[in-house]
């Protein structure tokens, strides 16, 4: 059997952690270790984990590390990967969950690919009730990467032998940068639409933080001159969309116009039009 490590960083939040860990413990594929990284929490979550999963810790099924200082999630995940024993690495946030057969359904694809990404479809609330189901249509894998549509860390499975880490300078969009970098390095990437991962939405999620836009901008500037001309309108348009989402009208329109100069038809893709209407009207009125 192939051994798997699931890496879960956490900080100051135990509300959903039991559900998250149990979703891994209940996997139909059994050769799995859980590597927990407490990022120097200030509450009692470290003791909470050790009490609630004492048996699993004693058996070596769950391993808990504690950072001396708060290092943020990129470095915490990298620490977890370093200490993991698995041939394959999966990453899970402290509030999200897997379906029971998620890992088992993904592993066969590693025969041909280095990285396997599962598209998130289900989003639930704090009571595990489905609040929305994404029906986004996905096109060519490479274009979807540069369009910012491939990224959630929860969807990532990667061979440890090729894992080059998450970069803290791109925190908030480190998952998107991970795919751009690995694509440019020639890693073989498989996208699965298997509805096997569940994302929890709540008020403390980081997706509403302005740093998300700043990291998006940083990634675009870092990689723009390194990518093929074919992908430039996609990364520009996505940067513009995120700028509009955070009320940066002038910057957003500038990047979108630059994208249209290269590929005028890019705006007619339904999802992009929807985002422009949603974020444009919301921020321009």
UniProtKB/TrEMBL annotation:
Assigned keywords, A-Z: Transferase
GO molecular function: transferase activity
Any coiled-coil regions, as ranges: none
InterPro entries the UniProt entry points to: Glyco_trans_2-like, Glycosyltransf_2, Nucleotide-diphossugar_trans
One Pfam match: Glycos_transf_2
Keyword RNA-binding: no
Glycosyltransferase 2-like domain residues: 5-146
Protein's name according to its UniProt entry: Glycosyltransferase family 2 protein
Annotated source species: candidate division WOR-3 bacterium
């Amino acid at each position: 059997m192939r051994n798997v490590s699931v890496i879960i960083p956490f900080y100051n939040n135990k509300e959903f952690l039991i559900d998250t860990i149990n979703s891994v413990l209940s996997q139909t594929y059994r050769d799995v270790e859980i590597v927990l990284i407490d990022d120097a929490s200030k509450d009692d979550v470290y003791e909470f984990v050790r009490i609630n999963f004492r048996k699993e810790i004693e058996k070596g099924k769950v391993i808990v590390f504690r950072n001396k200082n708060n290092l943020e999630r990129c470095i915490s995940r990298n620490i977890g990967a370093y200490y993991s024993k698995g041939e394959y690495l999966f990453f899970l946030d402290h509030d999200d969950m897997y379906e029971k057969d998620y890992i088992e359904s993904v592993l066969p694809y590693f025969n041909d690919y280095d990285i396997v990404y599962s598209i998130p479809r289900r989003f639930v609330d704090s009571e595990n009730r489905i609040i929305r189901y994404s029906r986004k249509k996905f096109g060519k894998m490479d274009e979807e990467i540069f369009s910012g549509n491939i990224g959630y860390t929860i969807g990532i499975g990667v061979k440890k032998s090729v894992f080059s880490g998450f970069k803290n300078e791109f925190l908030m969009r480190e998952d998107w940068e991970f795919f751009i970098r690995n694509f440019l390095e020639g890693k073989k990437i498989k996208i699965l639409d298997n509805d096997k991962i569940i994302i929890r939405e709540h008020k403390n999620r980081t997706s509403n933080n302005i740093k998300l836009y700043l990291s998006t901008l940083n990634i675009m500037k870092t990689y723009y001159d390194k990518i093929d001309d074919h992908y430039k309108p996609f990364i520009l348009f996505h940067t513009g969309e995120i700028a509009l989402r955070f009320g940066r009208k002038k910057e957003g329109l500038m990047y979108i116009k630059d994208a249209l100069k290269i590929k005028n038809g890019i705006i007619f893709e339904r999802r992009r039009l929807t985002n422009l209407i949603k974020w444009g009207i919301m921020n321009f009125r």
